Amino acid sequence: MISVGIDAGSATTKAVLVKDDGSTVHSIRATAFDFVSAAEKAYEDVLGIAEIDRKEVDHVYSTGYGRNSIKFADRSISEITAHAKGVHHIYPDVEGIIDIGGQDSKVISVNNGKVTDFLMNDKCAAGTGKFLEYTARALEVPMEELGKIALDSRSPASISSMCTVFAESEVISLRAKGYSKEDIAAGLVESIARRVAVMARQIGLKRNVAFVGGVAKNAAIKAALEKELGISLYVLPEPQITGALGAALHGSN
Amino acid sequence: MHSFKTLENLKNSYSERIRQIADERKSGKKLVGTFCLFVPDEIIFAAGADRVILCGGKNDTVSIAEQYLPRNICPLIKSSFGSIINDGCSGIKSCSHFSMVDMIVAENTCDGKKKMYELLEDYVPTYVIDLPQRPDTSEALKYFISELEKFRDAMEQLTGYKITDEQLKEEIRFSNETRRLFHRLYELRKRDPSPISGTDVLKILQKQYFLSPDKLKEYLQMLINEVENIEPGQVHKPRIMISGCPMPGGNTKVTEIIESKGGVIVAEESCTGTRSFWDLVDESKEPMIALAERYIKIPCSCMSPNNRRIDNILELAREFRVDGVIYYTLQFCHGYNIEKQKVQKALKEAGIPMLSIETDYSDSDVEQIGLRADAFMEMIS
Question: Do A161 and A195 belong to one domain?
């Protein structure tokens, strides 16, 4: 059976194709304005990489923010269920998931691949990729660099605003006070980690926790989360695709 | 789901009721506006007045209230206040009944409402019943009886009629009959699958605060007859209980989302739910004492400690065989938001999954609530 999962996220669209033998190919694209065309392109990407014709695909399952707009999908599932399935496939002993995406963050408690509890923050940008994007801008460093710079800090600045707009002005006033880029960056990273760790503790994530979503590529945030929670986190080489993988696997079951 | 004629008819009940109130007022009958279940209707009706509940569920009057009230208080308080003080200048319309009341009877429950009532006095004569907030002491009951006695006097003054014990007893009997009808409706929801959606039940729960008591009874009876006689469904859906804040008239956002995601709401532990009818008033006792005893036990989160509510939630969850609980709170409702911790713990121990939804009256978070509801249904199915 060949199945495809499409994760239509707010910032990026991910597609994973699972072949008969269980091997996978994937594609990640910027979502831009049009959810549907991003999903269509990501779908074509994986078909092309795998050299498989559309007709050979048995199931397409969608997930993510735009999951209901993808008409070529047979069904949609929530990204919470999808991440649990996808991560469990890679780490069978996983008991918790932290997902920091473009516009929300989630913590999920998992037992044998099934969701047992979850919490989401999607009311504001605090603790999300957007927070990083805006505050990196105030710091005048590319977002990808923010993590690297933060790792060089020896005394992180304290950022107390959870609100992204206020944090941005806090960054500017710290700059005015003469704090180094490194220390401000580290302060931002710690502030996200604190915020997300509170959610993780609320649902009791204690061990075998995987860190997924675009922000998981940021080594400084991973380190700060690990310090905050006192555990080491599983991070996949490609942490953005677990939702799409889970959707594909959901289709093949 | 089945579409019920009674609910179709209910749609016309608003204009009918407005006409009735207008006629009543012309003939000198007083209309009392209340907010909260702690105010015993029986005393109002026994004084020969009519009553409507003024809890607002509409989003558009919130902005009117925000000229006077802080933004970060609950939408129910803002919507109610905005609906009452609205002069129509801004082009936003309040429902007509808000401007028809002769007197408001308020109660000291949460801080937000207490302080809002103080402002309301400038617009409508407002009488406040004080509530003891540690309900399980004998002093509390004594005090509440004295507060209800004072309220009885105030009602007599408003209408000019003497409230006799006989009349009170008659009103108690009548209200108990309505409560028993609600019990019968809820009894039908224990069937699996439930023959009626939670959104449909909510519509009549909301209307109970607006209709005249005899009209409500008529509608309830009609609905029960209809529900009793429909073919039982076949497909099991996840059975959901709502627990938490009220969903006043005009607001069915959350129940609609949950039921569009495949669940069916079978009970509501809420002021638009069991809290309005679960306990009856003891008809064998002296009426003022019986009223005080019944009303002081309403498990609102303004009471402390409020273990009665936790016990009630567990009892309802078992009785209605629920698969999951949606803990519903309005933004900035500190009482219910904080009490969530205790409810969550008790439900966890009982092995019942819970999803928490905090929202307001706007539609801005419909997608986000939808995602949570999707994931919750997938989790409990």
Answer: yes
List the structure tokens of B56.
């607002």
**What are the residues facing B353 on neighbouring strands?**
none
Half-sphere exposure of B116 (CA within 13 A, CB side): 32
User: ipTM of this model?
Assistant: 0.89
Number of folded domains in chain A?
2
**Residue B381 sits at the chain A interface (C-beta within 8 Å):** no
Say if residue B164 is exposed, middle or buried (CB neighbours under 10 Å; 0-12, 13-18, 19+).
Answer: exposed
The token pair at B279 is 């306990």
Phi and psi dihedrals of A230, rounded to 5?
70, 30
Given an 8 Å threshold on Cβ–Cβ distance, is B379 in contact with A81? yes
First vs last C-alpha separation in chain B: 19
Contact criterion met (CB below 8 Å) for A88 and A112: yes
End-of-domain residue from the set B162, B189, B210 = B162
Establish if A233 touches chain B: CB-CB under 8 angstroms: no
The reply to whether A121 touches chain B by the CB within 8 Å rule is: no
Q: What is the CATH number of the domain that holds B221?
A: 3.40.50.11900
Min CA distance, B373 vs chain A (Å)? 9
For residues B277 and B347, the answer to whether their CB atoms sit within 8 Å is no
Residues A195 and A134 in one domain: yes
Residues of B in contact with A81 (CB under 8 A): 375, 378-379
B351 to chain A nearest CA, in Å?
11
Query: What is the distance between the alpha carbons of residues B46 and B52, in angstroms, rounded to a whole number?
Result: 15
Dist CA A193 CA A203 (whole Å) = 16
Instruction: Tell me the residue range of the domain where B156 lies.
Output: 5-162
Q: Quote the CA–CA distance of B159 and B362 in Å, as a whole number.
A: 39
CATH number at residue A16: 3.30.420.40
Do residues B106 and B129 both lie within one domain? yes
* pLDDT values of chain B reduced to their tens digit, one per residue, 381 residues: 789 999 999 989 999 999 999 999 999 999 999 999 999 999 999 999 999 999 999 999 999 999 999 999 999 999 999 999 998 888 888 888 999 999 999 999 999 999 999 999 999 999 999 999 999 999 999 999 999 999 999 999 999 999 999 999 999 999 999 999 999 999 999 999 999 999 999 999 999 999 999 999 999 999 999 999 998 788 899 999 999 999 998 789 999 999 999 999 999 999 999 999 999 999 999 999 999 999 999 999 999 999 999 999 999 999 999 999 999 999 999 999 999 999 999 999 999 999 999 999 999 999 999 999 999 999 998
Which residue among B100, B131, B162 closes a domain? Answer: B162
Quote the pLDDT of residue B231. 87
Which amino acid is it at B238?
P
Does the distance separating the beta carbons of A65 and B375 come in below 8 Å?
A: no
